[in-house]
Amino acid sequence: MSVIQPFTSHTPFDQVVADICEKGWSVTDGFFSEELIEALLADISELDNAYMKQAGVGRSNDHQVVLNRRSDYIRWIDPVTSARAAFLDAMSELRLAFNRRLFMGLWDYEAHFARYEEGAFYEKHVDAFKGKSNRVLSTVLYLNEAWGDQDGGDFVLFDEQDENKEVGRYAPIKGRLAVFLSEDFPHEVLTAKRTRHSIAGWFRVNNSIQNNVDPGQ
Ligand SMILES: O=C(O)CCC(=O)C(=O)O
Ligand SMILES: [Fe+2]
After folding, report:
1. Closest C-alpha among 105, 129, 113 to residue 72
2. Is 156 inside a domain boundary?
3. Residue 78 C-alpha to ligand 2 middle, in angstroms?
4. Best substitution site from 140, 177, 202 to test ligand 1's pocket, by max atoms within 8 Å of Cβ?
5. CATH of the domain at 202
6. What ipTM was reported for this prediction?
7. For ligand 1, what atom is nearest to the CA of residue 153?
8. How far is the C-alpha of 59 from the C-alpha of 139, rounded, in Å?
9. 107: containing domain
10. Nearest atom (ligand 1) to Cα of 200
11. Which intervals of the chain form a coiled coil (predicted)?
């Protein structure tokens, strides 16, 4: 496997860390190299729906597929291609930067490819309930070429104090990275009008929850 350089001299590393520190969320463009983005895009484009699964809401014992809340297809990411390995390495570097500068104690990172077919959406939700999850910081990397207003599928972020107050609305354009505190920010994915690709992931701490050490995917 060839080695892909994930970052460039323009990677807004400091910006993302500062945003999280100051307001708890961050949306930046050009975080990863063109080379990595193109490789990830090629990677997910080749995945057939038959090798993905209809995402459920909730985890482990309460896992169930509730299609009226969420209708994307997902595939968890392991370092089996050079693109996926480079992405996981890069996110590990970001994890260490958060730990060094903000003392967040992030232990690991899990991520999945997501495909929203035409008509798919994800209703407003939070990624983690206080005290019930190891997920601390959510990330979403978008992988869509030439995404226009008519394509829908915006990511909408809401205020941490008032879930009816919108704080930002972003098109899922190629190379855009959203990061936010998992417990604090409600968000949703508006209905996509064509196939929408992304990688959603979570930095986690290693607390045990209800006697379940580090619950699995
Ligand atoms: O794709 C997005 O914009 C957000 C996805 C999301 O909220 C999730 O997978 O939990
Ligand atoms: Fe989410």
Report:
1. 113
2. yes
3. 20
4. 140
5. 2.60.120.620
6. 0.99
7. 3
8. 18
9. 27-207
10. 9
11. none
